[in-house]
Specification:
Elements: H1 5-37, H2 40-45, E1 51-56, E2 60-66, E3 72-79, E4 84-89, E5 100-105, E6 108-114, E7 125-130, H3 135-138, E8 143-147, E9 150-155, H4 160-170, E10 186-188, E11 193-194, E12 197-198, E13 204-208, E14 213-218, E15 221-226, E16 229-236, E17 238-241, E18 245-252, E19 255-268, E20 275-284, E21 287-295
Length: 296
């Protein structure tokens, strides 16, 4: 027994070392996974200014989720006359043993063949496949893409009128009532499209006091901000032109959000000598607020 004691002690010490090494390896793996999960794609997906843009020309129909500065987060491309879908995620890191990239929404998922060498032109990883028959469902809700252990999304849902235009372009037929679908090289923000038509509403910046609030208006999109939410929250509203201005109707935190404008050349913000050309009335959180606005 005395002869076995040194062996038993040595085994116990080796086992402890192995467990420490496993713990270190596990910590390293967890840290690596954490770094991967904090990729530029994921960080960009959380930005409130991320929005979908549709580009259609003679060469391709392209749907891009991008930041306000124009940096792409996720793009879907259908080259003209090819019946092929190409998906690119710039934030993904190529994996030499992984040749499948999946994209979809909710229960609808489609797997495409990825180039494991990466995409030198677009960056990240690009995958291709035939245009899926369920393409509208794949982008009809919050969109996600996955490649190996990397995930991008879920991203904001693509507006339905933009979905229809994109699907029509991928199937090489014009979408009814969508005049912008064939405009060569022109980017059209979903904020400027309603009921398949491009809106002509002028972008504006609105401010109010007592309490302080602000709004950036672009087409049917209103980004509402206040001291507790300085970056602002983007709302998808329905725009209605009125005789002397416009009305934007939507919802914020489950309650009605209604912003109305009317011409008022001498509107004052109550804090400065500046006069604004537009008066604003806002209903938010069951409170009625007033302010002024000007074109930007």
């Amino acid at each position: 027994m005395q002869n076995l004691l040194p062996i038993i002690i040595s085994a116990m010490l080796l086992g402890a070392c192995d467990r420490q090494e496993d713990a270190r390896n596990g910590s390293s793996a967890s840290a690596a996974d954490e770094r991967r999960s904090d990729s530029p794609t994921i960080a960009a997906a959380k930005r409130p200014d991320a929005h979908w843009v549709l580009q259609a020309n003679a060469e391709a129909t392209v749907l891009v989720l991008q930041t306000q500065a124009g940096h792409p987060i996720l793009s879907l491309t259908c080259p003209s006359e090819e019946k092929r879908l190409q998906v690119n995620v710039p934030g993904f890191t190529p994996i030499g043993s992984e040749d499948r990239l999946s994209i979809g929404s909710a229960g609808e998922v489609e797997a495409l063949v990825a180039d494991f060498r990466g995409d030198r032109q677009l960056g990240g990883v690009t995958a291709t496949g035939a245009v899926p028959s369920n393409l509208a469902a794949l982008v009809g809700g919050p969109v996600s893409a996955s490649y190996g252990s990397q995930t991008s999304g879920p991203h904001p849902a693509v507006p339905q009128d933009v979905v229809r235009s994109f699907v029509a372009g991928c199937r090489n037929r014009p979408a009814a009532g969508t005049p912008h679908a064939g405009m060569p090289g022109r980017l059209v923000s979903p904020c400027l499209v309603q009921d398949g038509r491009e809106l002509s509403a002028q972008p504006m910046r609105a401010i109010g006091t007592e309490p302080f609030w602000a709004a950036r208006i672009e087409g049917r999109c209103v980004t509402y901000s206040h001291p507790e939410d300085q970056p602002g929250t983007r709302l998808w509203t329905r725009y209605t032109a009125t005789q002397h201005g416009g009305m934007w109707t939507g919802a914020l935190d489950g309650r009605p959000f209604v912003l109305r404008t009317r011409k008022a050349p001498s509107c004052s913000d109550g804090m400065s000598d500046k006069s604004y050309p537009v008066a604003v009335e806002l209903m938010v959180h069951d409170e009625r607020r007033k302010g002024c606005a000007e074109p930007v």
